[in-house]
Every structure is written in C-alpha cells, then in structure tokens.
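Hello, quick one for you while I still have it in my head. My current little project is about how a certain protein chain folds up. You're getting the sequence in one-letter code plus the fold written as tokens. Would you mind checking whether the tokens look sensible for this chain? Here's the protein in full, and shout if anything looks odd to you:
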Amino acid sequence: MHIIRRRTALGLGAGALAAAMARESAAQIPVADATLKLPIESGASLRILRPARFVEPDEVLFRENTQKFQQQTGVQVRVDFVGWEDIRAQTAVTANTGSGPDVVLGWAEDPHIFVDKLVELSDVAEYLGKRYGGWKFLGEKFGKKNGANDWIGIPFGGTAGPIVYRESAVREAGYDTIPNEHDKYLDLCRKLKAANKPAGFTLGNAVGDGNGYANWLVWSHGGYLVDEQGKVAINSKQTIEALKYAAELQKTFPPGTLSWSDVSNNRAYSAQECFLTANGVSLYFSLKNDPATAAIAADTNHAPLPAGLVGSAPQSALTINAMLFKHSRYPNAAKSYLAFMMEREQYDPWLQKCLGYWAHPLNAYDKSPVWDSDPKLAIFRNSMNNRFWNGWKGPINQAAASATAEYVMVQMCAAVASGQSTPEAAAREAERRARRYYRS
C-alpha cells in the first residue's frame, strides 16, 4: 500500500490529497480484465434524470463523477434530481412522448414497464459483471428482461430497510435484540408503547417505507401477491392473518403513521417520538453526522426484519435502475456514462461517502472499506442479495411494476389498519385490483 507521508501531504492541495486517497481506496476493489468498446458519437450531449438524494453526499459525489466524465470525454451531461414520488410520472412522460432524458435512473421494476422503449444494455452489464466479480441476485433480477438474458437496466444500488431501533428502549422492554417471532415482536411493540417509546411504520403511499412495511407484513406470514407463474394469489389465509396482525401492530404506533411519507419516520425517530422503525442507512447517517443527535446514533442499531413464518428476513431493496431510451441520439455516449459511473474510481468513493446508502449490486464492492468502517453498517453489505422483490413470487414485469406503483399492497394493509375494512374485504379488493395488471 502506498503511504502518503506528512511532507508529501503538505505538498498536495486538499483536493489532490482527497483524490489520491480515493484512488488508493478504490484500488482495494478487485477487478478482472474486461473490455468495452463504445465509440462516442461526435458532439454528444446527455440528459440524466434520477431520484433526489436522501443523504447529501449522494448528489454531491454523483455530480462530481459526472463532471469527471465530462472532462474525460467532452460529453456535456445535465443531471436533474426529482422527488421520489415524481420519478415514475416523469419517466412515463419520457417514454410516451419519445423525448426528454436520455437516461433515467428509475425504480427497480421501471425498465420492465417501458421495455419496448429502451435500448438493450447487455454489453454494459456483461462488461461490468466480468470486471467486478458478477452481479448480486437483485442486480440480475431487476436488470434482465423477464425470462431472458437481455439486460434492460443497469442497477446502481439498492437501499434495504431493516429494523432501526434504540438499544436502550428495546432492553427496557425486556428484549436483548429484535425477535423473529410474530407474537414476541408484537409483545415488544406493545411494551415500547407502554414505556412511551413506541415503534412506528408507515402505511402511507411511500415508495420505500410504505411498500417495505406492507410487503413485510404479508411475506412474513407466508403470503404473496402472485405465484411463480404470475397468477394473482393475494386473497389467501396467509394474507388474512397478516392483515389481522397489522391491525394489532397499528395500535402500538403513534398517531399519524397511516399518512407518513418516506421522510416521516426519519423525523419522528430523530425527534425521539419513535424508537423503532425500518429504514435505509440514511437515518443512521443523519444522526451520526449531526452533533445534536450523535447520542441517539450511539444508541441506535440495526437488525433484520423479523422472519416470521418464512425462515429468513423477508425484505427486498429499493433499487435505482438505469434505463436508456431509444430516442437518445447518443446511445454510445450514454452507455459509456453508465459504465464510467460504475467503475471503482467513481463508484467506491460514492459508496463510501453515502455510508453504503445505495448498497452495491456488483460483488467486488464487498471489499469496499465502507463495510468495515462501522459495525452498524454491516447489515447493509448484502442488501442486493435479498431474495424478495415487489410482486414476489411472480415475474418482474410490467404488471409487478404497475401494482407497486399503484400501492396495491400498501393500501390493502392501510384499509385494515385504519379500521376502514375487514381483512377479508381488503384482500378481495387487492385481488380485484391486482387482476387489472396481471391479465392471463
């Protein structure tokens, strides 16, 4: 390992020193020989659309890496960040009008909605897979066209939502860690409420947290939206039990959770109004980096979602998945940009600065120093190897994406948790809605 001595460091500017350290860190990521030849079109320029950042370094490093690409290639690149709830609507406009951004980093299933409007990306994906030790499970699952080896997306990373909890509050409730059994988990939440340190989960139309909680409720009871062949199967005894359980858990939450957005539980936890929730690393990141909440961060830990009846944590990862539209005049420039952003010189500093918020989809990045920088981050290392996805157990296709975008699972659970519907009626309504998308 190259050692930067004090005299050398003093001779470097702060930017040069940071760049040297980033190169040294990136060198820890193992690579294999691989070649990708993409002659960039003359006069190329690109427009990129992606979700807004949840941790500040996400946007800062993304823009810096984009600037590096511009400097090295001469391709002018404009990056627009939009709200999480807006990205799908803007992607649909782009697809339907055949104009707008060249590349959209949308959500996991989104390329499967617009597959006929997209440029195949197998050359980029196969290059990256060969160079960086292969793709993790969800990387392939979301990247490849259903039932084929054709890549229609390049997953950049995924944020899992494990349990985030105050260790002192859980101990006060009589538990050393988060239990896997439904009855014990409910008991923990009841005791937290009695201690005025409640748990809180959203059943609002929240892209990450709402879908994550609703999916967990159903999956952990052995239920699923559709079976392996894509036949709607949500109206089942397992779902009914999950909905009954949701109604009991809801009684332990603070008021307002039924309308929480993706930022609400972060705010409630930081304000000590909620002491157990599910979230990506963004919550811990913000607590740890603010002196006013550092004590909360020190008392915070993560645990897998309770396995319930399925034997392993039933969780997925909210994944950003890049797609290239056929209307782009500069497809080679766009492909080059995607590959460049995933190379270790750019990707690993982004991964580290975000504390692994968008956990990596390529196996080589298991070696990133970020995963050993704090033991509380270790749980996020294999986020993209989770074996569940929106629309599980069925295929990832337009139907799965549409059912997710319309919050079929979330609204089913919310109807029961709010007391507006019985479990049986809510399951029937979810079945009816799902069949609008899963036509067979």
About this structure: The longest strand covers residues 45-51. The CA atoms of residues 369 and 380 lie 13 Å apart. The two ends are 59 Å apart (CA to CA). Strands lie at 45-51, 76-82, 103-107, 154-159, 163-166, 276-278, 300-303, 318-324.
